[in-house]
TrEMBL record:
It comes from Eubucco bourcierii (red-headed barbet). This is SNX33 protein. Keywords: Cell cycle, Cell division, Cytoplasmic vesicle, Endocytosis, Membrane, Mitosis, Protein transport, SH3 domain, Transport. The keyword Transport applies. It comes from the Eukaryota.
Amino acid sequence: MALKARALYSFQSENKEEISIQENEELVIFSENSLDGWLQGQNSRGETGLFPASYVEILRSRSGSNYTDYSSSPAGSPGHDFYTAPANPSISYQGSFEDDDDDDWDDWDDACTVVEEPRSAPGTNGHPSPSLQYPTAYDHHQHAGYRPKPALERQDSMSSSKRGSVVGRNLNRFSCFVRSGVEAFILGDVPLMSKIAEAYCIEMGSKGPQWKPNPHPFICSVEDPTKQTKFKGIKSYISYKLTPSNINSPVYRRYKHFDWLYNRLLHKFTVISVPHLPEKQATGRFEEDFIEKRKRRLILWMDHMTSHPVLSQYEGFQHFLCCRDEKQWKLGKRRAEKDEMVGASFLLTIQIPTEHQDLQDVEDRVDAFKAFSKKMDDSVLQLTNVASELVRKHVGGFRKEFQKLGNAFQAISHSFHMDPPYSLDALNNAISHTGKTYETVGEMFAEQPKNDLFLMLDTLSLYQGLLSNFPDIIHLQKGAFAKVKESQRMSDEGRMDQEEADGIRKRCRVVGFALQAEMNHFHERRVADFKRMMQSYLKQQIMFYQRVSQQLEKTLHMYDNL
């Protein structure tokens, strides 16, 4: 039930999940149960979002005191349903429909496909982390009856006794910067492994940082979607034949296997734009058009996977492509699910160049890419809508109009037969043939999208997914920049050792180099993919209109000897 409240203090939002409130502003609270010290409600300007529970008081008409104290409320109490953590595209499961991908992993796998969540935060030994007082930038004048502004509680913070002064954690514990573990990595809270078996190198190229190429490049074909059954025909599914060029030995995988791999990739590679899988479909999964569409898009997905210097070397991906033995498959699958070098720990595997990069230059480059990716996302959506409408016209409108034109020509021909003495059979037949030619042209228009527009839409769909990943990845870099600036300010004020500030800057360089390498890889692939897409579209258009022209020329010659 909504409750009225009043803001005791002003609060400035820092991200899209929060809203700003002003002192003495009237608010609407959706539920008085706080989640980790935060409430969800609406301010007087109609904005809805989160704000600190300790910054407001609920107005009660039947109570001697209208103040509700949240300082003793248990953080994170279960059962609070007023807030749902916002969806993150970089870690959400692809598709909202459940199809045959829900059942067990055939008869050669177990049902365990989810990594168990850790019971406590790293380094806490199973005990909750003590809270720190959040340093605030607000100045308040002392006056009679003044109530001091409460400090905001922060989760996962380190004990003040552990170090002299630490950079504050983000107040919003739902942001991808926090949930991904990158904040903990920047602040040095991700424990170093005694032995790191994998390493991914970044080197300086002509256009800046780039991933070191895979020393053993390969491609992989996706072919022969085949309907298969199990349980004596009760269960049906489609399998795809995958043939990696480096072993030239095929394996057969279902879409659910692709889906398992995709979620492993999202879980592990925090700062990489993992290409989205083709969407799921609730009905019509065995229709020929859907199967063909999924195959085309899996081919593009596989092409991007094998071309990525990091993703192509991932042990889980290699296992997915190469393993043919039932026992070895289960062992490799479990090994991938127990991989410790995921999320923030993945950043420990990245080796960066020694070249100096000015953080402001990096930030400017990231801002330019952010503006570019937003504009490209808008233009890709625009072209997708136009191409989709053109497909609809090809299949429906164009075919229908050419059929009408053909019927009209044939009606003329039939009318000319009505008066035999003046009827010229050669002319009548030529006009009738012209009508049939335009009906044929209409069918050609209906079939043409399979040759050109479908490939364009497949490529655009892939890039919509890739572009949708970058806002969260850029947010990670922005959060890292903010921590560097804050640590340097604290160091200048003597509240932090310079050595500690340098450590934060060094770890921020890892995130910055990784993002720039990913940006460069994206541009490299974008140029190749859109060049191929446009060349293929134009070639197919030329061939199409040549075929139409040939049909019309044959018909035209029927009038030559009349």
